[in-house]
Amino acid sequence: MRLRIQGEIIRPTGFGLATDIDLDLDGVAALVGASGAGKSTFLRLIAGFEPRAPVTVEVDGERWQTAGSGLPAHQRSVGTVFQDSRLFPHLSARANLGFATRSRRPGTRLEFDEVVDFLDLGPLLEQYPHELSGGQRQRVALARTLLAPARLWLFDEPMSSLDPASKQEIAPYLHDLCRRHAVPIVYVSHSLPEVLAMADHVLVAADGWVSHVDSIGEFSTSFANPLLADEAGAVIDCRFKAFDSRYRLSELEFGAASLFVPGDLSTMGERILLHIPARDVSLATSRVEDVSILNRVDGVIDALNEQGESVLARVRCAEGQFLLARVTRRSVEELRLDAGVRVQALIKSVAVRTGAP
After folding, report:
1. Average pLDDT over residues 242-271
2. Could you tell me which of 88, 135, 192, 243 has the fewest CB atoms within 10 Å of its CB?
3. Measured between alpha carbons, how far is residue 58 from residues 71, 84, 107, 186, 313 in Å?
4. Nearest alpha-carbon partner for 60 in 161, 167, 182
5. What integer is the mean pLDDT of 117-126?
6. What is the pLDDT of residues 338-350, one digit of tens each?
7. What share of the chain in percent tops pLDDT 90?
8. 293 or 320: which carries more pLDDT confidence?
9. Measured distance CA(234)–CA(279) in Å, rounded
10. How large is the angle between the packed helices 134-147 and 93-101, nearest 10 degrees?
């Protein structure tokens, strides 16, 4: 899907948001930024809730909005989940979902049983919104959006009220849904792990401007990343090389180095994305051989970024890709770490990003 949004919106309060986005929206585009940066307003522009805004919105060449005119919200084939559930209070959960299934707008429609079963809504169907917890209401709201036909899904922090276990389960499910049904997602989040687990593209709202970051790998290791202090980590692009059945390890090619990941990843395709938390990377200025850590990568420190009592080191490794390592200020001084210093990165853990292309 081609998404083009160009223009500027200015509130009487002085708040302003401008953008000039033109990209192939394939998969999940995370929209990040500080509170009040305009993320929700950006979604409202796409959904049609800012009909008087002098902004051009085009989806696959169809002009949904231009200065002063455009398709009304109910005619745009968009499914939206807001931070609050916005369920109809006088309807049961089942009736709220049934309202969505009656929609006749064009777009992909998911099966009722599939969505209800995955989101574990069976026991809740006869209950009313006031009888549900905040997390339960949000799961019903998410299901209602998925059950209405749509060509594009807009999610405004849809999992903010869910427990960590539910988030870890639902995030890859949403990514798989958009891939399987070819329905792109624009996903607002304040959680860096959530973004790194899901996003194929990243949009950043900052200083009244929404811009596009080229890749999730670039975003994950950029010191300009507004979420960097939140569990920093790098997303790297590897190639499957071989599976060692004796040790149950997959060997992945990362430039000149090999990384070893538990399990058989041969069915995931040639390209595999890994998420490597900065806290799980140590640095050595001389080669380390006799150590139990299998994954060791040579690189050069590209830059350092002080963050309170610790320092983030960005290490240039394979083919212009980077790792992040969180080290103490004492280690920086004792090892004389600085830009240009050659190091060996010792990687203690990696996570395969499920649903990656």
Report:
1. 93
2. 88
3. 11, 27, 16, 15, 40
4. 182
5. 92
6. 999 999 999 999 8
7. 53
8. 293
9. 11
10. 20
Dihedral angle of Cα 215, 252, 266, 357, to the nearest 10 degrees: 0
Q: At what angle do helices 134-147 and 164-181 cross, to 10 degrees?
A: 0
The sign one gets for the Cα dihedral 253, 254, 255, 256 is negative
Tell me whether residue 69 is exposed, middle or buried, using C-beta atoms within 10 angstroms of its C-beta: 0 to 12, 13 to 18, 19 or more: exposed
Task: Provide the b/e sequence for 83-110 (b: ≥16 CB within 10 Å).
Answer: eebebeeeebbbebbeebeebeeebbbb
Structure confidence by residue, pLDDT tens digits, 129-168: 999 988 888 889 899 999 988 999 999 988 877 787 777 7
What number of H helices and E strands is found in the chain? 8, 21
- In this structure, what token pair is assigned to residue 323? 């790792």
Inter-residue contact 160 to 188 (CB < 8 Å): no
Confidence band for 262, pLDDT divided at 50, 70 and 90: very high
Contact 180, 143 (CB under 8 A): no
Q: Which of 24, 70, 12 is nearest to 44 (CA)?
A: 70
Alpha carbon distance 291, 100 (integer Å) = 57
Q: Measured between alpha carbons, how far is 187 from 202 in angstroms, rounded to an integer?
A: 9
Q: Name the class of domain 2-213.
A: alpha beta
Give the span between the Cα atoms of 196 and 308, in whole angstroms.
Answer: 23
Residue 354: the pLDDT is 59
On whether the CB atoms of residues 19 and 211 are closer than 8 A, the answer is yes
In the chain, which residues fall in CATH 3.40.50.300?
2-213
Indicate where the chain has its CATH 2.40.50.100 domain(s): 233-352
Q: Is 105 helix (H, G, I), strand (E, B) or coil?
A: coil
